[in-house]
Specification:
alpha/beta, 6-stranded parallel β-sheet, elongated
């Protein structure tokens, strides 16, 4: 995918990235990079779209076609390196699992050409995964003579045993969305509206949230909650049964997936955003909530504490701790002024640190620093 004809004045960059579909945090950020005006203005680049699946439910499934696809990309990478001759290769490498070993082989091919390599880490778990000498040596070899981008300073600890350099820190950012003039189709807006928006999967904490809401209802708190997202490892039917069993049918609604304007309306109509994930590295959805001035309740997971400031823009809770989650939600249910105050602080923090312009500018600066230009 050619993005510029002005080869004489722009450094050449080869992007090895996953683009949608499926849509997830990494593929979304990759799209932002290759469509960035500032990146297109300053670099001549080609893109290899490392597409191994087309939907979220295929991500963890083995197939022969995936193996053949892996081999196909080996030849495509070698061909691009020979023909395009980039000065820099940008690669969103999988940090753990079988995906890491697949990507390690791609790094092997890249290193043959002695080109500068950026490895952008959108995941974590490396420190836990280097539990024997062989694994640690593989990681050290993959990361040797490369440049690494981490999403926050706190995530650098994950690679401290296998990388001796100083990683670049580039937080993610999202587009600033306009306010939407939509009809608030909610039964009673005087009742606080709690929003959960993510895929219906256990590690996003959706079942923990249901348990917390059950605790609150038994304590007599009044609220409505809306769960927006697509089924992944939890079906809509299972969620409905769980809600019925917890006696939450009247106050919790399963909405399903929403996109674009319909999704933004959910943020705009909510009062509290809750995302009790226990697997995320960054949590882009928290940024979406902050830009709509929502107080955010999330977890001490990955780089989230660098985004959501505990007791200032919202609250952070221990992962899989329904009681603690219920207590923090209760504070915001009881105090409308605090909800508004935290939401405003979150909005300011978003505008000052986590817009798409911030991300693109930081990536551009990082590329220039590595290339020495």
């Amino acid at each position: 995918m050619k993005k510029s004809d002005n080869k004489n004045f722009k450094p050449k960059v080869l992007f090895l990235v996953q683009l949608p579909p499926p849509v997830h945090g990494v593929s979304l950020m990759n799209t932002y990079i290759i469509e960035s005006d500032i990146i297109n203005k300053n670099f001549d680049f080609n893109v290899i779209d490392l597409r191994f699946v087309n939907s979220m439910d295929q991500l963890q499934k083995f197939s022969i076609s995936k193996v053949l696809t892996v081999l196909k990309y080996c030849f495509e990478i070698a061909y691009k390196m020979l023909i395009f001759k980039p000065q820099l290769v940008y690669f969103t490498l999988m940090p753990t699992g079988l995906g890491f070993y697949r990507d390690a082989f791609y790094v092997f091919i890249l290193k043959i050409f002695k080109t500068k390599i950026i490895l952008h880490l959108h995941g974590k778990g490396i420190k836990k995964n280097t539990n024997n000498v062989v694994k640690k040596k593989i990681y050290k070899w993959v990361f040797s003579n490369t440049y690494i981008i981490c999403l926050s300073e706190r995530l650098t600890e994950d690679i401290s045993d296998v990388y001796s350099g100083d990683p670049f820190i580039v937080p993610n950012g999202i587009e600033v969305q306009p306010k939407i003039n939509g009809i608030i189709n909610l039964s009673n807006k005087s009742i606080p509206q709690i929003l959960f928006l993510s895929n219906y999967t256990r590690n996003k904490g959706i079942l923990v949230l249901i348990e917390a809401l059950s605790i609150l209802k038994k304590q007599g708190y009044i609220f409505n909650a809306r769960f927006v997202g697509a089924p992944f490892d939890i079906t809509t039917e299972f969620l409905q049964k769980t809600i019925i069993n917890q006696n939450l049918t009247e106050v919790v609604k399963i909405i399903g997936p929403l996109y674009d304007k319909n999704k933004f309306l959910e943020f705009q109509n909510a009062d509290i955003f809750v995302f009790p994930t226990y697997n995320d590295v960054f949590g882009l959805v928290n940024l979406e909530a902050m830009q709509y001035s929502l107080p955010v309740i999330s977890t001490f997971e990955g780089s989230i504490p660098d985004i959501v400031i505990d007791n200032l823009t919202g609250f952070l809770v221990e992962t899989q701790n329904a009681q603690m989650l219920a207590e923090k939600i209760a504070i915001l249910l009881n105090d409308k002024d605090l909800r508004i105050k935290m939401g405003k602080k979150g909005y300011e923090r978003f505008l000052n640190n986590f817009t798409l312009n911030h991300f693109e500018s930081n990536m551009n600066t990082t590329f220039h620093a590595i290339l020495g230009i």
